[in-house]
Design brief:
Helix content: 40-55%
Oligomer: single chain
Shape: elongated
Order of helices and strands: HHHHHHHEEHHHHHHEEEEH
Structural class: alpha+beta
Radius of gyration: 35 Å
């Protein structure tokens, strides 16, 4: 007799296991994640910011929310709405929630309020990984990963365009106020304009992007000026710094070097005459040999004077070149591109070059991993290159290595809360 297919009886009623932990095999990783968060990690920082008691519905257990985020992130799920959906459709997510189904707003608020506690929490994760034999630190690797932002490249604007948009927004607001005053009179004069309360607030984003550009340019100028002043102060104190000197201080540093050479040569001349006078007073013969050369004719003084002349010429040439460059940029802006831009959707994001060519609007995530693939340090940056983050990430990796190699901490006590049902 021929075998038949197994029946698919979707309308067949049946009872689920009385213990929801039996929904998944005992060896499923979600059981380990739940046990680690609830029994081995200190989550008191997440509990500290929660409000219990009073009117209203009971809040979600912070331990459950932390476990939910850890499991979601481990599977590449970062959308709060997607997490809410999986809490109703995915067995592992349902098991973590224990019959609850937090909405996406609750997930987003918990994540936003847990920024400070998250760093300490993941430091504990590193320690636990070390106790489990993970994190071999013989060789570590640092790499940057470009992460796309929720913003379009076409929303980038130059400083001039941002100023123009800001002016247009201000003019539009003024025109709207004038039109409303003419239409409604003084009775509605204190009404809140629509652009002030609507969710988009495009004018605010334009202002924020423009302020970011201005602040970045001002910070760069201030950093260059501060570095130049440090070199000048060190030279004035008699301890000139070695290495490449800032162009902004080249002429002043050369003049200080010339003054030091003149003073040093004059000191040698004065010391020679003092020795001769001392020998004459003692009735001794005059020291043979000519006196040291006059500072104006001394070779090193002449060389320092020539450096002053060259430094002044370089400064004048740099100023002239800057003027010419600005004029050239105004002439061929379309050919060379718009220069620094800011995104009016996400002003913190930047245009990031990606492997294979092209750009994305996003961020540059820095990650340090151990030889067995454990991420021991991470940072999200808006820098288009990785080199400036080598030293800061190295320091973070050293701090993480100290946690991993430290002796195991004493057992932690759980944050007091309602007794767990078994």
């Amino acid at each position: 007799m021929a075998k038949r297919y197994r029946p698919v009886l979707r309308d067949q009623p049946f009872l689920l296991p009385p213990d929801m932990r039996e929904w998944l095999p005992a060896g499923h990783p979600v059981h380990l994640v739940i046990a680690v968060v609830e029994d081995h990690l200190d989550t008191s920082a997440f509990h500290a910011g929660r409000r219990a008691g009073g009117a209203g519905a009971a809040g979600y257990d912070p331990d459950m929310m932390v476990t939910l985020l850890v499991w979601a992130y481990a599977h590449g799920v970062t959308s709060s709405r997607r997490i809410e959906e999986l809490c109703g459709t995915d067995v592992a997510f349902r098991l973590i929630c224990g019959g609850n189904r937090p909405d996406h707003a609750s997930v987003a608020r918990f994540r936003a309020a847990s920024g400070g506690a998250a760093g300490e929490f993941f430091a504990q994760v590193l320690v636990l990984c070390a106790e489990l034999g993970m994190g071999r630190l013989g060789v570590v690797a640092l790499d940057g990963t470009k992460v796309a932002a929720s913003a379009s490249k076409s929303a980038n604007r130059t400083r001039e365009r941002l100023r123009e948009l800001a002016g247009q927004a201000a003019a539009a607001h003024a025109a709207a106020d004038a039109a409303e005053d003419a239409l409604f009179g003084q009775a509605a004069g204190d009404e809140v304009p629509e652009d002030a309360w609507r969710a988009g607030r495009r004018g605010e984003r334009i202002a924020a992007a423009l302020a970011s550009l201005d602040a970045e340019a001002a910070a760069a100028d201030a950093a260059r000026q501060a570095k130049a002043e440090e070199y000048v102060e060190a030279a004035r104190a008699g301890t000139p710094r070695a290495g490449h000197q800032p162009a902004e201080a080249g002429a002043e540093l050369a003049e200080l070097a010339l003054a030091r050479k003149i003073a040093a040569q004059q000191a040698r001349i004065d010391a020679w005459h003092a020795r001769q006078a001392a020998r004459a007073a003692a009735g001794r013969k005059r020291q043979p040999g000519p006196p040291p050369a006059d500072p104006a004719g001394y070779c090193r003084v002449k060389e320092a004077a020539a450096q002053v002349t060259r430094a002044r010429a370089r400064a004048a040439a740099a100023a002239q070149q800057q003027e010419q460059q600005q004029e050239q940029e105004r002439k061929d802006r379309n050919r060379k591109g718009p220069g620094p831009v800011r995104n009016i959707t996400d002003p913190h994001s930047r245009l990031m070059p990606v492997r294979g060519g092209g750009f994305i609007q996003g961020y540059n995530a820095q990650n340090v991993t151990s030889s067995d693939g454990l991420i021991i340090a991470t940072a999200l940056t808006a820098s288009t290159t990785d080199a400036p983050w080598f030293e800061p990430m190295l320091r973070k990796a050293e701090d993480a290595a100290a946690l991993i190699t430290a002796p195991p901490p004493p057992p932690r006590h759980r944050h007091p809360r309602h007794p767990r049902r078994r």
